[in-house]
Amino acid sequence: MIARLQYITQAHPHHRPAQHCEELCKAGVPWVQLRMKQVSTTDYLAEAQRCREITQHYGAKLIINDQLEVALGAQADGVHLGQDDLCTAEARRLAPPGFIIGGTANTLAQVRRHIANGVDYVGLGPLRFTTTKEKLSPLLGVEGYAQISQALKQEGLDIPLIAIGGIQLADIAPLLQAGVYGIAVSSLLTHPPDKQHLVSKIITTLNL
């Protein structure tokens, strides 16, 4: 099952991604996507294995950003692939049965392609500007999500759309009304001191 609240780790000068992973799993996040840029495959795999132990302890899903090889090596639950990564169709061909594959999209055409390739969900965005990701695609705004969601319905296509990109608590209700299934956040949950309280509020808003 695809979680409606997904946490994406981010680089931090004093904390490893695995520490963020444990803090957020302890706070009740059901799904962690490990994102590490500009690191060796060896280092990425080692951190993924740490996160695998943590997510298994808390019963959360672990998704690896960008690299299928690391996801399979760490026995993660799945992989999330961007536009410049391995094609989602090729990932589906290489992955074992039940392995979760998500793809990033910014347009209706990209969502259609991911659906045809057999993804389990689409990370659609960005909603607004965010400093946590380089090479940001054009902003969608809530109206952009509504237009893509409506077009998919008219075409009889059904896929969980996960909104991403600078999402705040107040954005959740409008995004759900626009047709998204869930949200993926990074900064929103990385920095607050009382993570458990905020996670609880988000889950309540998502009506999980």
pLDDT below 50 for ≥5 consecutive residues: which ranges?
none
In what order do the strands lie side by side in the largest sheet? Answer: 1-2-3-4-5-6-7-8
Task: State Rg.
Answer: 16 Å
Order of secondary-structure elements: EHEHEHEHEHEHEHEHH
- The coarse silhouette is globular
Q: Quick one: biggest sheet?
A: 8 strands, parallel, barrel
So how many helices?
9
Tell me about this structure:
With 208 residues, the protein is an alpha/beta fold. It is 42% helix and 17% strand. The chain has 9 helices and 8 strands. An 8-stranded parallel β-barrel has the order 1-2-3-4-5-6-7-8, surrounded by 5 helices. Strand 4, helix 4 and strand 5 (100-105) form a beta-alpha-beta unit. The two termini are 12 Å apart. The mean pLDDT is 95.
